[in-house]
Amino acid sequence: MSFPRKVVFYFLLLFSAFLLFFPVLYAFMISFMTGGEIMQGKFFPQTFTLDNYFRVFERLPLMKYLMNSFVVSTGVMMGQLIVCSMAAYVFVFIPFKGRDLIFFLFISTMMIPWEATMIPNFFTIQKLDWTNTYQGLTVPFFALAFGTFLLRQHFKTIPKELFEASQIAGLSRFAFFWRVILPVSKTSLVTLGAYGFLTTWNMYLWPLLVTNNDQVRTVQIGLKQLQSQEVATEWGVVMAGVIVVIIPTLLLLFIGQKQLQKGLTQGALK
Fold first, then answer.
1. Cβ-contact 132, 214 below 8 angstroms
2. Which of 16, 74, 204, 218 pairs as cysteine with 69 (C-beta 3.0–4.6 A)?
């Protein structure tokens, strides 16, 4: 690639990155503004003060919401890693009659909209008396078809001879899964874990349905409460809450960006 084409290419990349990141940057600027500056349409605040950040913690139990979101997101992440890795292992290394058909049916659930299963899941949680509990917020998301498919594609790249050698060495199927499969699949597991954590952290509708008090409510519900507390919304305070909420996700994306890219493409070619 010639030098002028490289310049144009990197300019387009920077411009695209700026467009994508602009809403976050603008929210960050608004979080330091007063109501008057926001109404005037300014982009940079006159003074950078933390008043809005102090006020958001005064108006909401935001730290409790953050802790709830961390517990729920971590629980869903761990549940998905356990269930999806074991399901993918079965679909690759344990032959049984109708395995391909069952896998096809399992993957076909990806085409079912979440809204179609939300009501049956809610009735199930209600019957189990799991409303306002961590298990009600986490257990319905443990079985993930996408996660099973992702790990299955990676497990298929592991040589069958390795499995045969483990059987000759006397390893049980679970020992082979625990000692061999999981250690060589760290990248795909990290990818799935990050995906599950980020998806759960940003979830809004399901926590709204299965919680009716502040005991286990998550930060997304808290942000909506902050916006609807008053007739005239103080957007500086709201954006301060938004910035606090998205910091963990941005850190996770920046730290694990290479692992995410590698894990998503690792099983693409066998």
1. no
2. 218
Query: Half-sphere exposure of 192 toward its Cβ, with a 13 Å CA cutoff?
Result: 33
Closest CA to 227 of 214, 216, 213, 241: 241
pTM for this predicted structure = 0.85
Question: Burial, 39: exposed, middle or buried (Cβ in 10 Å; 0-12, 13-18, 19+)?
Answer: exposed
End-to-end CA distance of the chain: 30
Token code pair at residue 227: 């916006």
d(CA 170, CA 168): 5
The residue behind tokens 């909209």 is 113
Tell me the torsion sign for CA atoms 74, 114, 147, 264: negative
Looking at residue 17, the DSSP 8-state letter turns out to be H
Tally helices (H) and strands (E) across the chain.
15, 0
SS3 assignment, position 117: helix
DSSP string for 204-239: -HHHHHH--SSSS--HHHHHHHHHTSSSS--HHHHH
Per-residue pLDDT reduced to its tens digit, 32-67:
888 788 888 788 888 888 888 998 888 888 899 999
Rounded CA gap, 153 and 96, in Å?
Answer: 18
Give long-range contacts, CB 8 A cutoff, 24+ apart: 31-37: 31/236, 31/239, 31/240, 31/242, 31/243, 32/236, 33/236, 34/236, 35/234, 35/235, 35/236
